[in-house]
């Protein structure tokens, strides 16, 4: 259950102000059909994070404990820095897919936007840390994405205007920094337990 709760929390925070959250807002404004947009986000996230989680679980099996220890610690610290860099969305990620309908456009745009994104990288790292609980990590990161994106689709810019995105980014960065330092200074056996 720890893997699920931590994954949900980290991704929900990391997603605030992220380009995929901005994409959710753009899709909601463009199509004004929240249900197929939310379903497209859900399916794209499950597929994307299942693949990312599989990579994280694979990394755990094929790297030595010492290498994994350093990779996790440095990756979490890099995520802390990355959280402080604001995201922008390219109109190309939305355009050109409308022939697939609202659901298809959302699915493709969201899946592509999530490739190499902060939350996908976080999913890889969390699955590496909690490899025995891979399914819980994917469920948690997917729930975190939905908690951050579904309200944006349903309520649009009303929420975005009230949430101090910069504060959320700083809090997220601090959390990732602490996780990185814990990973670097915790004995490997304890870290992977």
- The amount of helix comes to over 70%
Counting copies of identical and different chains, the oligomeric state is single chain
Distance between the termini: 14 Å
Please, how many helices? Answer: 10
What is the overall pLDDT average?
79
**How would you spell out the order of helices and strands?**
HHHHHHHHHH
Number of strands: 0
Radius of gyration: 17 Å
Number of separate domains: 1
What is the percentage of strand-forming residues? Answer: under 5%
Which class do the helix and strand fractions yield? mainly alpha
The shape, in one word, is globular
| Poorly predicted parts | none
The description of the largest β-sheet is: none
Structure overview:
With 193 residues, this protein is mainly alpha-helical. It has one domain. The chain is built from 10 helices and no strands. α4 (65-83) packs antiparallel against α9 (165-185). The longest helix has 29 residues, at 34-62. It is globular. The mean pLDDT is 79.
List the helices and strands and how they pair.
Blueprint: H1 2-15, H2 19-31, H3 34-62, H4 65-83, H5 101-114, H6 118-129, H7 134-155, H8 157-162, H9 165-185, H10 188-191
Helix pairs in contact: 1-6, 1-7, 2-3, 2-5, 2-7, 3-5, 3-6, 3-7, 4-6, 4-9, 6-7
Question: Brief overview, please?
Answer:
Its main location: membrane. With 193 residues, this protein is mostly helical.
